[in-house]
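Me: I hope this is not a bother. Any chance you could explain this protein sequence and its structure tokens? It all follows right here:
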Amino acid sequence: MSYDLYFTRREPGQSWADALDAIEEQDLRPDLEAWESIVGHARELLGEVRVVEYPPNWEMDHEETGISVNHWEGGWEMSVPYRTHGDEARRVVGLLYEVASVVERETGFECFDPQLGLPVAEVADPGRAVEMFDAVADRFGRRGSVDA
């Protein structure tokens, strides 16, 4: 189970629901220039990341936080597992959104947070996302553990 972010190109006036429904219909091509730039910026933000390349798919994972960036057949997605809570979840969500901003800047795609039902650019308080991490921790009894 993970917290996911989706990226798409929206037409002027197009709703997010319509844009997300149309992702599979978009004519997407891998963007290796953007990929290399995103990996470089992610390393600046996160430190060491693992990169797996098997064209037309590229993946980047950060072991400590679990943040993953995927560039699959020209599309973009991000995720992070629900394995933290509280202050650590706040830190991880902050980093997730920072990397998402890099992906937006480098690709021209917009990022949507389906858990909150908002574009990432409109998420004023990442605490709303942290609430979801805390709820998952509570559901699985992880709040009392050190590294949940």
In short: The two ends are 13 Å apart (CA to CA).
